[in-house]
Structure formats: C-alpha cells, structure tokens
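Researcher: Sequence recovery benchmark, item below. Answer with residues only.
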C-alpha cells in the first residue's frame, strides 16, 4: 500500500515537472549548433614588390586606414616620374598641333588667293604675248614689203645707170646726169640692204615672241596646278585638326598612365580597409610578394552576429524580428540579447558539394538544418569579447 502511494506520488511529481517544463519551454526554440560570425577581410597586395616594412603583429587591433605593410616604392616612383615626363611631352605636342590649326587655315586661304592671282597674271601674260607675236608678224610683213619695194627701186636705178651709160658714151647725156643716176642706184641698193636687215630682224623677233607666248602658257599651266593644290586647303585643315585631335588623345592617354602610376605608388603602402584584429599574418620584411598574394586577414570584431543552425521543424513559428538570447560557452553561460535578423534561403546541406536527396517518402530521412542569423542588440559586447567561431546556444522566443 505504501509502495503504491509512493509510486503515485512519483508519477504526480513527474507530471507536474513535465507540465512546468512544457510551460517554461513553450514558445521557445533553442539549439547548440550555433557560433559567432563576423566579417573576415583578406588583405592582398595589389602590386608586386619587396616588403620593406611590416607595421603590425598577429592579434593586433588596427583602425581603418592604418598602415599594415610597405613595399619598396622606388620602382613605382620612377614610373611616376616617367609618366609625368611623357605627359609633359604629350601636352607640348598637343599645344603645337592646336597652334598649327589656325596657321594652316590662314596659310591655305592665302595660298588660294595667291594662286588665283597667279592664274590671272599668267592669263594676262598670254594675252600680251599673243599681241606681241601678232605685232612681230606684222613687223615682218611690213619689212618684207619694204624690202621688195627697195629691191624694185634698186633694180630700176641699176637699169637707169646702164641706159645712161650708153647715152653718155654718145654724149647724149651729161656726166652730171650719169653721176646722179649712179648715186641714186647706190642709194637704192643701200636702202634694199637696209630693208633686208630689217626683214632679218623682224624674222628673229617672231620666234622670240612665240617663245614668250609658250613661256606664258607654261606659266598659266603652273598657276593652274598651284591653284588646284591650294584648293586642297579644306583637306589640309581637316588633316591638321585630325593631328591635333590625335595629340589631345595622346595627352589623355598619358594622363591615364600617370594616374595608374600614381595609384601603383599608393598601392605600395597597404592600409587596413576596416577596423579589426590582425590574424593569419604570414609575411616578414624582405619577402617578395606578387600582386594578389594574401598578406594577412582582418577580423571585424565590432560587428558580430550569431549563425544558428535550427532544425527545419523548429522554424514553424520563427520570424524575423523575434527576440532571442545567446548563451556563450566560453564565458560560463553569459547571456547576450538580440533578435532574429533573417532566415537563410536554403539549408546548409544544400550548399554542400553533394546535396542530399531528402524528399518525403525516402526510407532514411535526415532532419535538415537552416541557418538563422541573430543580430545582437547594440552595446551587448563593449569589450569585444565575442570572437568569430565561438560556440553559443541561442534561444528564440517565438511567442
């Protein structure tokens, strides 16, 4: 009888305990598959070089913008100086090319006017030469007519002398008349000789005038050629402007090269991108590093959160914004307050190399876990005691 009463009492106590446990745990979801997470920034070298200075140690707290390591900057300083010199040369060439544009435009317009004036002058020279040829031929014709007249007169005078000579022998004419006829014949022969000289001179003047006419026509052809060449002025101006544009583009390229060289010089000093704790430092002064080579990591301890892997059966009533508490194993169950920030879009196993086939109806079905991000309330960790990877036990209040 006493045993039955004791058994009944034990059952009642268990039922009361179960009821109290259910009452206390109702509306709560907890898991021990959780840890502290944070941003871990891998710091790499953006340029290659030799490390001349390492300014930090492992587990050292650094501020954003603090110098971490310094590479030998001499090669990059030389590159900057060379880029500056190339930029100065390109700017000078561009300025000269820009100056040539108005000069070419003015010169081209002047050449057109000059060439047109040369054509007009050559055409005037042709007209004058043609007139001179006509005049030379007219003088030749007149000289030839005068020569024929003089020769006729000389012939008549000679015949008169011969006729008077016979009459003089018969004393039919006086000696004075005969001498006058002889003198007249000599004068006519002299006039004929003079007319012959004038004909020769006129004949020589015709080829000279024709030569001048040919020279005038050649000058006209040359003037036309110069005019055609001068009329290419728009193309010459366009070519000059194109060279000026190319020179300006070269200036832009030189500026870009200078900017890149200055960036490379800045990259020789590696600075902290965020505030945090230095970790995984595997470098020393004198070491040669390549661009993209990891140097160290910086852990952001100012912004930490909890990644809790709840079972899929625990997510029925879990929503973003619900309150939560976090017990940290490292600090003897010290409790932190927070809230549910978000629920992952897939289970953790879904991102594995070989995702499991866990459809309903399978003979073996494993309960999956879904990562839930729990953000801590502000001011919960002023001493920055929470470090990524620490094991915690979060509890979410779903009601």
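Model:
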């Amino acid at each position: 009888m006493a045993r039955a009463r004791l058994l009944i009492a034990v059952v009642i106590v268990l039922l009361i305990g179960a009821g109290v446990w259910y009452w206390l745990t109702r509306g709560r979801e907890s898991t021990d598959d959780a840890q502290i997470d944070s941003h871990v920034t891998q710091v790499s070298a953006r340029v290659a070089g030799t490390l001349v200075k390492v300014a930090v140690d492992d587990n050292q707290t650094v501020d954003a913008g603090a110098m971490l390591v310094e590479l030998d900057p001499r090669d990059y300083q030389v590159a900057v100086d060379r880029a500056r010199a190339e930029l100065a040369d390109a700017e000078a060439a561009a300025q000269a090319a820009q100056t040539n544009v108005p000069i070419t435009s003015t010169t081209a317009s002047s050449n057109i006017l000059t060439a047109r004036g040369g054509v007009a002058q050559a055409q005037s020279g042709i007209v004058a030469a043609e007139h001179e040829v006509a005049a030379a031929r007219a003088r030749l014709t007149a000289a030839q007519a005068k020569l024929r007249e003089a020769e006729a007169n000389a012939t008549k005078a000679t015949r008169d002398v011969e006729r008077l000579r016979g009459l003089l022998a018969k004393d039919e004419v006086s000696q004075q008349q005969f001498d006058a006829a002889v003198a007249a014949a000599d004068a006519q022969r002299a006039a004929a000789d003079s007319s012959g000289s004038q004909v020769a001179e006129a004949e020589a003047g015709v080829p000279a005038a024709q030569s001048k006419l040919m020279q005038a026509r050649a000058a006209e052809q040359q003037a036309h050629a110069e005019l055609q060449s001068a009329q290419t002025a728009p193309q010459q101006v366009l070519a000059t402007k194109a060279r000026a544009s190319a020179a300006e583009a070269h200036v832009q390229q030189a500026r870009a090269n200078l900017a890149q060289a200055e960036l490379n010089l800045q990259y020789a000093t590696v600075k902290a991108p965020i505030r945090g704790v230095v970790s995984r430092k595997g470098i020393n002064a004198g070491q040669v590093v390549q661009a993209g080579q990891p140097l160290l990591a910086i852990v952001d301890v100012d912004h930490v959160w909890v990644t809790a892997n709840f079972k899929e059966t625990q997510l029925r009533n879990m929503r973003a914004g619900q309150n939560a508490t976090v017990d940290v194993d490292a600090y003897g169950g010290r409790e932190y307050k927070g809230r549910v920030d978000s629920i992952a879009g897939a289970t953790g196993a879904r991102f594995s190399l070989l995702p499991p086939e866990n459809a309903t109806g399978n003979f073996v079905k494993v309960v999956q876990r879904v990562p839930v991000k729990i953000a801590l309330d502000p001011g919960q960790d002023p001493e920055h005691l929470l470090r990524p990877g620490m094991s915690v036990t979060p509890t979410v209040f779903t009601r």
